[in-house]
């Protein structure tokens, strides 16, 4: 890891590379069906996006939030509906794009989905106290906002 941090390249390039490495590490840690939840990673991410949003989201909104195509999100939503973890509702803002809300079973399943993240957070506690984790979270949120503002020919929409 130090090799990337000590390079002569623009540190923003190294930051992008490090985010990809972090993504890979997280995917390896959390990918595959979770024995406790029966959900694959994308389904768990979509369920989480529905559970935590103040306003129930549409499929395109979830896609933008998570950086996946609408088609991928729709497949995950369809599976979550079949499992009775989420349900569509009429969208007062749009006739054809329903909003999605978690059922009680979906909220319960989300608590199960979060357990591995909570376990990892406990493992990381020695190196990342609450203040450091909060600062890093805020910096990553700022980075995400900046990346989302940049035009990209592969925007998932």
Automatic annotation (TrEMBL):
Molecular function GO labels: DNA-binding transcription factor activity
Organism per entry: Stakelama tenebrarum
Record-given protein name: MarR family transcriptional regulator
Pfam families: MarR_2
InterPro entries: HTH_MarR-typ, WH-like_DNA-bd_sf, WH_DNA-bd_sf
Domain named HTH marR-type: residues: 40-97
